[in-house]
Amino acid sequence: MTDIKGRTAVVTGGGSGIGEGLAKELARQGASVAIADIILENAEKVASEINAAGGKAIGVHCDVCERSSIAEMKSKVNEALGPVTLLFANAGATSFDALMDMSDDDVDWILQVNLHGVMNTTRAFLPDMMAAGGGHVCATASMAGLLPGWIPVHVPYSAAKMGIIGLMMNLAIEMEEHGVHTTSYCPGGVATGMKVNNARYRPDRFGGPGEGEVHVGEDSAAVAGSQAFFRPEAIAPMVLDAVTNNRAFVFDHPEQRVHFRETYAKIVEACYNASDNWQDQHGRPEANPQGAMLVK
Ligand SMILES: NC(=O)c1ccc[n+]([C@@H]2O[C@H](COP(=O)([O-])OP(=O)(O)OC[C@H]3O[C@@H](n4cnc5c(N)ncnc54)[C@H](O)[C@@H]3O)[C@@H](O)[C@H]2O)c1
């Protein structure tokens, strides 16, 4: 079990949407919460709403693409709220442009904010958790990471979100002895302002903030449009329930189970059948007598 009450939590991207929902639910369940966001005024607004409702929160500026910005944020949080044992690495940005139409800056941005952002924040806060003898890292991935063939025209985003899942699953093994658990939250449709606000999140080193809605092509819009979009405040208790019970995953749309099963059943069958057929014809590939070390 991971207790929420009495803990200090950090929520990156907590200034709006899913992160705002998580921050408010964490406070409602008795955690002190630091809302860390690239848009400081949004982080401060969420913190003041939590404080007005009787909770304890601070808003802090942070760009999760920059290790130095995370380090500054961490020292402010530690000073105000003490060591952090709950991390919600949730900040992210999206793109539905075709890969070869994207600028190098935009490809780098989407990979950095979604994948390196989670890596950077996790590495910054693990020492607090290891020193405390336990903690929990919950990263917001996506169904687009678990099922990268599901939503078309989403290449760097799907790659980054799939990377988060690998990060969380492998980290759980490494951190077992320290009592640190991990959860990958894979939203399958939550109503937020990302489509409208996304361009505002672009850090200076990737071209700086812009204006305008995210362009979503017809094929991607058709998949997205077939989903129900839940409200962030309705989803947050479900995510915290998974964290409390140290579950490795949260999937919020049970109807997506069919697609999940079909995708992985197809991969397993197609790949191992092909491998069996090849080995039936050619024999099993020769194993190296020295194991992993290739001695020529
Ligand atoms: N809404 C969905 O249906 C959905 C589906 C799958 C995954 N997600 C993921 O959920 C997470 C939250 O997104 P949301 O839908 O709530 O959108 P949102 O736009 O409401 O929230 C994103 C937040 O991240 C912040 N942010 C962006 N770049 C940042 C940076 N470099 N450093 C710090 N903060 C930064 C933004 O200011 C914003 O507050 C994202 O990781 C997103 O990819 C959302």
Question: How would you briefly describe this protein structure?
Answer:
With 296 residues, the chain is α/β, with parallel strands linked by helices.
Based on the coordinates given, report the CATH architecture.
3-Layer(aba) Sandwich
Give the integer mean of the pLDDT values. Answer: 96
CATH top level label: Alpha Beta
Helix content: 40-55%
Q: Name every ligand kind in the structure.
A: nicotinamide-adenine-dinucleotide
Unreliable spans: none
The count of domains is: 1
Sheet with most strands: strand arrangement: 3-2-1-4-5-6-7
Largest sheet properties:
7 strands, parallel
Silhouette: globular
Remind me, CATH topology?
Answer: Rossmann fold
Helix/strand class: alpha/beta
Distance between the termini: 50 Å
Range of strand content: 5-15%
Q: How many DSSP H or I helices?
A: 10
CATH H-tier superfamily: NAD(P)-binding Rossmann-like Domain
Query: H/E element string?
Result: EHEHEHEHEHHEHHHEH
Got a strand count? Answer: 7
Oligomer: single chain
Structural commentary:
This protein is α/β, with parallel strands linked by helices. It has a single domain (about 10-280), classed as Rossmann fold (3-Layer(aba) Sandwich), CATH 3.40.50.720. Helix content is about 50%, strand content about 10%. It has a seven-stranded parallel beta sheet, with helices on both faces. Helix 2 links the parallel strand 2 and strand 3. The model has no long low-confidence stretch (mean pLDDT about 95). The structure holds nicotinamide-adenine-dinucleotide. Nicotinamide-adenine-dinucleotide binds next to helix 1, helix 4 and helix 7. The site of nicotinamide-adenine-dinucleotide (NAD) has 33 residues, from helix 1, helix 4 and helix 7.
